[in-house]
Amino acid sequence: MRAMAVATALLIATIAASPAQASQTSQADPKPDHVFADPGQRPAHGNANAAPGETGTTAGRLESRILPIVHICSPTLRIRAQEMTAAQLTATCTSLANQDAYFHGVVKDSGPVANDYNTTLEVDVFNSSADYKAYARKIYGIDTNNGGMYLEGDPSKTGNQPRFICYERTDASPGWQIWNLNHEYTHYLDGRFNLYGDFNASQTTPTVWWGEGIAEYISYSYRGVTYASAVAEAGKHTYSLQTLFDTTYANSDVSRTYNWGYLAARYMVEKHPADVSTVLGYYRAGDWTAARSFLTSLDYESDWNAWLTAVAAGA
Asked: What pTM was computed for the model?
């Protein structure tokens, strides 16, 4: 999700490996794909109660003290961290830079949407979940009963600072990760290059199938990791494609939002790229009604079900 205070179960984002490296280790299922049972590991998304980190404020001084490392990856990406090694910083920058190129290759955009000034993403990394819970509320005014939070802000305002506030984990394979990194980075890219306006604007009509689906699709396909739980769901044939086009945060559960969002986005990207181009053209212009009308006119149900069977069999 881009900017909504909803706790959801998301994926582990492996940042230390490039896609080529990940493909060599993806034969075993990632553990886990999603964490359903522990709400403390589920990212949330929302708006800070006040501008975080303003110079001279209590929150700003605390941010500078707790997150002293400032590392510039590129003109569009910087990291503030509590404790990261030079190798970890480099690996993170490399992973996100490569993901950036991968994303643009998939969505085939021609640049940022109009009136979007979210030019530089800040990734704020706490050393652990405990540190995140201890300090993030004080610095950013956010809830911390989650696995991190993306704050989009108002992209139409010059100088707006989008942030992904997150933490490190050392208890998951391959041994060190920034939790939920690649999924959330996709939300930033999607908001800047595909979805006109802020989060609320994008929810004018049902767009969850795309927003959450493409974030899952990019994260898993970029890292070369099999999305085991989604593959298992495909064999159940639970939802028609048209039903998934109707998905909202209000009418769906974790499986429909993420597993089935992934399947819907993957199907459309891989099987009907011209239709994706049409839909994104409307999304980029903020013409949500036209996108909705186009999607509801499609009839691929027979092919969709055949494709689901193939995916479940390992395609």
From this structure: 0.83
